[in-house]
């Protein structure tokens, strides 16, 4: 499943409704100021691009709403979900500017693959050279 995280309920609801209009049945959860949407990974390329564009639009709305609510104390923050071997999902705090630069070059899915590969290497170290694996 692909996971999409929001920190405000309004863009989360908008994204869920968008997914439903695309014929998807999103799984959702809300807990401790985080709203999640989970979608299947096996989407065709055109739909995947539509979802990515909508997620970016919703993230901008998310940022604007959080900034409005928190006012001058607003702190820019971004998190990247990391799935651990035991199934837990934790968030790595990352500078939002860095995440935005990365997402201008690779997709959210590719970023997830990279993060999961690093997490796997940390949890399951393998000292052999790559050519011998």
Q: What does this protein look like?
A:
It is built from 4 helices and 5 strands, in the order βαββαββαα. It has helices at about 10-20, 45-70, 95-105, 110-125, and strands at about 1-5, 25-30, 35-40, 80-85, 90-95. A hairpin with a 2-residue loop joins strand 2 (about 25-30) and strand 3. Helix 1 (about 10-20) runs antiparallel to helix 2. The longest helix has 26 residues, at about 45-70. The relative contact order is 0.13. The mean pLDDT is about 85.
- Please report the distance between the alpha carbons of the first and last residues: 27 Å
**Backbone shape:** globular
- Structural class per helix/strand content? alpha+beta
Biggest sheet, spatial arrangement of strands: 1-3-2
Q: How many β-strand runs?
A: 5
What is the H/E order?
Answer: EHEEHEEHH
* Helix coverage percent: 40-55%
What labels describe this entry?
4 helices; 3-stranded antiparallel β-sheet; 133 residues; 21% strand; 5 strands; two-stranded antiparallel sheet
Secondary structure layout:
Blueprint: E1 2-6, H1 9-21, E2 27-31, E3 34-39, H2 45-70, E4 78-83, E5 89-94, H3 96-103, H4 108-123
Brief summary of the model shown:
This protein has 133 residues and is an alpha+beta fold. It has helices spanning 9-21, 45-70, 96-103, 108-123; strands at 2-6, 27-31, 34-39, 78-83, 89-94.
């Amino acid at each position: 499943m692909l996971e999409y995280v929001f920190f405000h309920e309004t863009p989360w609801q908008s994204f869920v409704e968008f997914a439903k209009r695309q014929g998807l049945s999103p799984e959702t959860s809300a807990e401790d100021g985080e709203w999640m949407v989970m979608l299947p990974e096996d989407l065709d390329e055109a739909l995947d691009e539509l979802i990515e564009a909508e997620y970016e639009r919703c993230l901008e709305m998310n940022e604007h709403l959080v900034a409005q609510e928190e006012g001058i104390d607003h702190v820019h923050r971004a998190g990247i979900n990391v799935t651990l071997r035991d199934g837990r999902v934790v968030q790595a705090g990352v500078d939002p500017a860095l995440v935005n630069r990365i997402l201008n070059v690779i997709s959210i899915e590719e970023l997830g693959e990279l993060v999961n590969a690093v997490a796997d290497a940390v949890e399951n170290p393998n000292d052999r050279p790559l050519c011998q694996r």
